[in-house]
User: Fold this.
Amino acid sequence: MRTVTILSVCGLASAALAQGPAVVDYGAGGVFDIFYGGSTGDVIGYRFTADVDMFVTDLGVANDDVNDGVLDSAHMVGIWRNSDMALLGSVSVDASGTPVGRFIYESVAPIALSAGESYTAGAMYAGGDLDSYTSGPGSITLDGISGTTAVFPSATDLGFVFPTEESGGNAGRIGPNFIWEPIPAPSSLALLGLGGLVATRRRR
Assistant:
């Protein structure tokens, strides 16, 4: 896992910040390889509310394929802002990415999410890609986010687009995931004497 160190320009003070996956773990549910079927592909995932101001640093996809236990194909993964359906960031994830728990991740340019705002995490699955996602998990453990609701696209909005439809009572279609780190509050930085900051990341 990556650690984050905030350094003053003089190198006199530092503070390590915690980071980790938004979906920590989940229980059994229905397993599917695509929502509608077909080679165009469609985006499934979940709506959520950010509990804290955060940077998303990595986007990932579930590595729980029921066919052979490995990720067979590349999947586009993204995060959208719900208020205007704007795509905030995306990346293609395949088996060459970094495995963390039950997911494989690729790094992205940091995506800023605001506490109390609503977003959608989505991953695209296509017919014949030999991969699968879990819908309606019996349990779900979250970190930094809350209020997850499963989403899927309308039948006329296929491809890598914002999934407009929701499934009430379903906590999520667990294909996408992301790793986040908190954005330090200015007051916290001032207490540490960290004026004029330079942020550095040590990659995995």
Observations:
- Residues 18-183 form a domain with the Jelly Rolls fold (CATH 2.60.120).
